[in-house]
């Protein structure tokens, strides 16, 4: 079985911008590409797990999410890094149409991590999630993975919510250096 590092996207990899879906508005948090490259070199599978309620709210489409992920992948490739898998939850309880449903994939539930484990033969117990929200930490704990909160994005405001079993780091690069 593989070890993975699950990464939240907005506020962890890229600068938090409300309902980001346009490539021209995408900006890496400084050090994020280097951090992902270090994970690649260390042999971890890198899996992005991101809530994208903007789809359910009608702000953008699933195709927009996938286009942005292709853009990010291209930017990472230029830096010598890559993400092995991209998973996202398009649902929200107050969304529209078929996206307004209770699901098991929306963090803080562990559904995306469990789905990745099934698809890619990942050992959740030897894996880690890194994110900037309590929901990321809760999803990781529910999946049986170790957890790291970063202070970027919403992390500085959520730091007091995490328990002593969650490591807190300034950003993704410092989290990866801690992990390695």
Task: Please describe what this structure looks like.
Helix content is 35%, strand content 16%. With 180 residues, it is an alpha/beta fold. Strands 3-2-1-4-5-6 form a 6-stranded parallel sheet. The radius of gyration is 15 Å and the shape is globular.
Pick out its properties.
180 residues; Rossmann fold; 6-stranded parallel sheet; 6 strands
> What fraction of the residues are assigned to beta strands by DSSP?
15-25%
CATH topology: Rossmann fold
- Gyration radius, rounded: 15 Å
CATH class, anyone? Answer: Alpha Beta
Count the helices. How many?
7
- Label the CATH architecture: 3-Layer(aba) Sandwich
Q: Tell the overall outline.
A: globular
Low-pLDDT parts are none
Largest sheet: 6 strands, parallel
CATH superfamily: HAD superfamily/HAD-like
Per DSSP E runs of 2 or more residues, the count of β-strands stands at 6
What is the secondary structure topology, with strand pairs?
Elements lengths: L3 E4 L24 H10 L3 E7 L1 H4 L5 H17 L6 E5 L21 H10 L7 E4 L2 H10 L2 E5 L4 H4 L8 E3 L2 H8 L1
Parallel strand pairs: 1-2, 1-4, 2-3, 4-5, 5-6
Helix pairs in contact: 1-7
Q: What is shown here, in short?
A:
By secondary structure, the chain is an alpha/beta fold.
